[in-house]
Amino acid sequence: MPGCHTTDHQMRLYMKYRKTHPVAVAAAKASISRATAYRIEKDPRPPSQKTEARGRRRPDPLADIFDAEVVPMLQAAPGIRSVAVFEEMIRRHPDLGESVRRTLERRIRAWRALHGEEQDVIFRQVQEPGRLGLSDFTDMAALGITIARQVLDHRLYHFRLAYSGFEHAHVVLGGESFVALAEGLQNALWSLGGVPREHRTDSLSAAFRNLDKDARADLTCRYEEMIAHYGMTASRNNAGIARENGAIEGPHGHLKRAIEDALLLRGSRDFDDLALYRRFVDEIVSRHNARNAKRIDAERGELRQLPERRCADYEDLSVRVTSSGGFTLRKVFYTVPSRLIGHRLRVRLYDDRLDVFVGATLLMTLPRGRASPSGKHDQVVDYRHVIHSLRRKPMALMRLVYRDQLFPREAYRRTFDLLVERLPERQACRIMVELLGLAHERGCERELAEALTTCLETGEVPDMNLLRTRFAPDPASLPDVAVHLESLQAYDALFSWEPELVTGEMA
């Protein structure tokens, strides 16, 4: 048609029809004019080969510097970014201007395609059902989770089956330790209901950090024993090459984005307690597993059976209770009842708690504390363990090492600050100890904290007489128990049985 350029496709059509039709008919079928057809007969080259490349319309701004300066820079530092090269060229040649940035980037990209270094190739793998399970940890600090308004410093232990995509996540309060790995992995396997043939992790360097040779060997043996207990083969990727665990590194990001979206829909990042946050994470993971239910069910048939029992997912340690009414473990001081002073206790150290044993008897469970990254010691204190001694020595409260951890709620701490400000130290300590004793004896810790908050709002010093009266037991609510004692003759009647009747029954 007039005004339209002939394309290579039209020429191919014309040449096809020309084999069986005359020039005019073949030209009409190819939608070109008869004159164009005769030109094709004279010159059978495609139109794309006849068109000469358009030359530059303006001088090349990089002609003098690319081969002389940019190429040597790319050869000396292959990993340098294009924007860094551009900024260096602008510094050397201010007259270039910002408009050459895209030109320079395209020129660098083309040069690297022809002369750049070889890059690593990702080899996609065929995953077999029941073969590979992967474990890794991911940091959750960026999400800003809080528990009762306190920032939660934590990680997620993440387990995934490479074939079906089954996932399990476990909130870890400490670092990447063996205890966290053992607890998270076993929770995942028992919720899955089977065991894969191979378990892969990264180098687990965090579990061995700052340990001597004997400690590293001990942890390595414990990990191997756990893997052998479940009949798996242990493997790990090369140190520092995270992409070798791509089957779980990528899902890390997907899981964290899913948690972020759920937090936005929830409207709050604060949770009342740790158990509620763990249920929140479990629900998100279970939704993902529900979408892959068919593949997960298919892979379950290829998994090995679980052993009869779990293996230990804790550290078994021994501590001695000192005269301070507690023991120190991993730079954390824990209080226990003072009757245990001088005793040696057995402690099972989990990721989030301590089980304390006297011999084989479980005595109590304590929340686990952790020293600060700077190395400063921490304390886990229960005021009920020391309140009886504080009553005899109330002035010890004034400069007590763990005084801030002693107060069970913020209202108690603020009340002590008010007492110290308004009253002499001795009287302030005595009143504060009496308040803690009242909370312990009457079981009114929360109600007393609310009463103290009211006093703080009005700026009044708590009146102990009024508080004792308010939280004293109500005589009307005490049950009237009548005990009726039976006579001794009634007990004698229980032993008055007939030998003949018994002998007959036995016969």
CATH class of the largest domain: Alpha Beta
Beta-strand percentage?
5-15%
CATH topology of the largest domain: Nucleotidyltransferase, domain 5
How many discrete domains? 5
Radius of gyration: 39 Å
How much helix is in the residues? 40-55%
N-C termini distance = 124 Å
Counting DSSP H or I runs of 4 or more residues, the number of helices is 21
Strand order of the largest sheet: 5-4-1-6-7
Unreliably modeled segments: 206-210, 501-507
Q: Quick one: overall form?
A: elongated
**Largest sheet properties:** 5 strands, mixed
Q: How many strand elements?
A: 15
Overall average pLDDT: 86
Describe this structure as you would to a colleague:
The structure is a single chain. This protein is of the alpha/beta class and 507 residues long. It has five domains: 8-48; 66-113, no CATH class; 132-300, Nucleotidyltransferase, domain 5 (2-Layer Sandwich), CATH 3.30.420; 315-380, no CATH class; 384-473, no CATH class. It is 46% helix and 14% strand. It has helices spanning 8-18, 23-29, 34-42, 47-50, 66-76, 82-92, 101-115, 178-192, 205-208, 213-229, 246-266, 274-291, 293-300, 383-392, 403-406, 410-422, 425-442, 445-458, 464-470, 488-493, 499-506; strands at 132-139, 146-147, 150-151, 155-161, 167-172, 198-201, 233-236, 270-271, 315-320, 326-329, 332-335, 344-349, 353-358, 361-367, 378-380. The strands form four sheets. The protein has a five-stranded mixed β-sheet with strand order 5-4-1-6-7. It has a four-stranded antiparallel β-sheet with strand order 9-12-13-14, with no helix packed on it. A three-stranded mixed β-sheet has the order 3-2-8. Mean pLDDT is 86; it is low at 206-210 and 501-507.
